[in-house]
Structures are given as structure tokens and as C-alpha cells.
Amino acid sequence: MLTGGRAAPTRNTIRPETLVIAATPAKALPVSATRMERVLLAMCRCLLSLAEVAVHLQLPVSVVVVVASDLVDSGHLSVRTPASQSVSPDLLEELLNGLRNLS
Amino acid sequence: MASATSLDQAADRYVADTVQRSAKILVVGAFGVGKTTLIGSVSEIEPLRTEEAMTTASVGVDDLAGLDAKRETTVAMDFGRITVRPELVLYLFGTPGQRRFWDLWEGLAEGAVGALVLIDTRRLEQSFEVLDQLETHTAGLPFAVAVNRFPDSPGHDTAELSDALDLPPQTPVIECDARGRSESIKALIALVGHALSTQKVLS
């Protein structure tokens, strides 16, 4: 089973746009780690969103979310900034200014 | 050397290490309305496609006896990325209009800045379901309407459209050509500006 039989991630702060990167210093995976965990961690040697990880590994996003959540829990993978429940006004301001500069 | 080329390509796909946070906007609309075109015109990466399996109860009458009544279909989602500032990256997720499809992608609607609803005035009726979904199932998610201009689109003014679509007051309606980067960015700016003013009213 790809996800060890679980259908839902253990934490709800991990979303398709969540940026992840392998933890530093790197923490070796246990010998019992699955192939999925190994390829996911290798893909995350630099910063990437989970949606992109899923595409590059040709896996469904829902599977990657579950596996990544485990790797975060075990300290192998870091979340760049944990997602908050709501969108803050300062994020919106920053986004608006950034987009205006692009137009 | 082939391996060097593939390494370069691999390096290109990563997000700049200066980025500290990400935001997302959903680009929703009926099939063929131009969601992927809009995403492609603003994305710094080639739009990516991901597919999720969806189990649907079969309603067909031509099932073979003995086969499971449920079948798997896949639903595709295209997405793109814009690094809007050195510290901030924006993801655009193009999703089919129906909310039941959004639920396929874990956490897709949660934490979104808002939804940009792309409509085609030649097939206005197809937009109703999408707008109904937004108003009834994702109440609170700010949205703006972008009218994708096709060469044979009838002329119309945005106030008329707003009436025809029975939009909540203050909902921005922007005309844009989804093939153009600056017009697509303007549509995104209208949505983010609307999201910001909605928050200010609420707080």
C-alpha cells in the first residue's frame, strides 16, 4: 500500500501549495523506509510545493500529501512556512503589490 | 552530455530559496473556458497537470453483469506558478467548476486567497453552476469574474453581465484576453484587491 493504508494526512496544514524542503542537517531515512518516501525526499532536495512534487513524481497529490505529512512528522522534511487557517491581510497586501509590479 | 541537460532542467523547476511563503488562487470555470490558457499566460513554469482518481457510482445501463458498480475516472487539474516577490510565490490552480471536484485535491479550497471565475459570454449558462457552487458551498471565499474575450464574443457591458449572472454587489467583473499576460495579471489584481477589501469590511 502506497500510504500504509491511511487515506487522510495526519495534519491539515499541509496543502498542495505548501512549500517543503529536506530537513537540514539531512536526517537519514530508516532502512524500513518505503520507496515512495525515498523518492519524495530526494525530490525535495530544493524548495518545491507538494503539487509540483506530485507532478514530477507522477503521483496523485493526495498520495504525496499523506507521505509528506509522515516525513514532516518524522523530522525528515521541513515545511517552509506552516499554512495558516486564514489568509492574512498582510499576505494579501504583499501579493497585491507584487502583482502590480509585474503588470 | 545528456545527464547535464537533464540536471539543468531539474534545477530550473525548483522554487527560489528566497521564497518564504506561498499563496494560491483557484481559477475556476466550465470546461473549455480558457483556465489553462490563463494559467499558461502568467506562469513562470510550463503549466503542470496532475490527475486524481475519482470513484463514481456508475449510472450507465450498459454495465456488464458482475462488474463492480463503481468505476474510477480521473479528473485533471492544471496549475502554474508566479514568483511575485523574492519571498512570495503564487500558485494558480485551474479546477473544474464543481465543488465535488475540488474536494479531490486535499486542502485545495482551504487557505485560498480567492477564486477567479472565468466565463465565456457565448455560453453564459454554463457559468451558473460554477457561481452557484461558489455562493452556496464556499461562502466566504472571495471571487471575481473574468470574462474571457473570444474573437466572436458578443459585446456587452460589465454591469449588464453582473445583472445577468446575479452577482453579489461589489463582485469585480473584468474583461480579459486570457492569452495575454498583462490582462490576466490585471484580472488577478482585481481578485486580490477584492479579497483585501472584503477582509477590511469584515474586520
Give the rounded overall mean pLDDT of chain B: 83
Q: Summarize the main sheet of chain B.
A: 7 strands, mixed
Largest interface chains and counts: A-B, 42 and 51 residues
The protein's oligomeric status is heterodimer
Instruction: Let me know the CATH homologous superfamily of chain B.
Output: P-loop containing nucleotide triphosphate hydrolases
Number of helices of chain A: 4
Summarize the SSE layout with pairings:
The complex is a heterodimer of chains A (103) and B (203).
Chain A: E1 19-22, H1 35-43, E2 48-49, H2 50-56, H3 61-73, E3 77-79, H4 89-102
Antiparallel strand pairs in A: 1-2, 1-3
Chain B: H1 2-12, E1 21-29, H2 35-42, E2 48-57, E3 70-85, E4 88-96, H3 99-102, E5 114-119, H4 125-137, E6 143-148, H5 158-164, E7 173-176, H6 181-202
Parallel strand pairs in B: 1-4, 1-5, 5-6, 6-7
Antiparallel strand pairs in B: 2-3, 3-4
Helix pairs in contact in B: 2-6
What does this structure look like?
The complex is a heterodimer of chains A (103) and B (203). Helix content of chain A is 42%, strand content 9%. Chain A is built from 4 helices and 3 strands; from the N terminus they run βαβααβα. Chain A is elongated and about 50 Å long. The relative contact order of chain A is 0.22. Chain B is α/β, with parallel strands linked by helices and 203 residues long. Chain B has a single domain, classed as P-loop containing nucleotide triphosphate hydrolases (Rossmann fold), CATH 3.40.50.300. In chain B, helix 2 (35-42) packs across helix 6. Chain B starts with a helix and ends with a helix. Chains A and B meet through strand 2, helix 2, helix 3 and helix 4 of A and strand 1, strand 2, strand 3, strand 4 and helix 6 of B.
In short:
The complex is a heterodimer of chains A (103) and B (203). Chain A has 103 residues and is mainly alpha-helical. In chain A, 42% of the residues lie in helices and 9% in strands.
Features:
heterodimer, A: 103 residues, mainly alpha, 4 helices, 3 strands, B: 203 residues, alpha/beta, Rossmann fold, 7-stranded mixed β-sheet, 6 helices, 7 strands, 32% helix, disordered N terminus
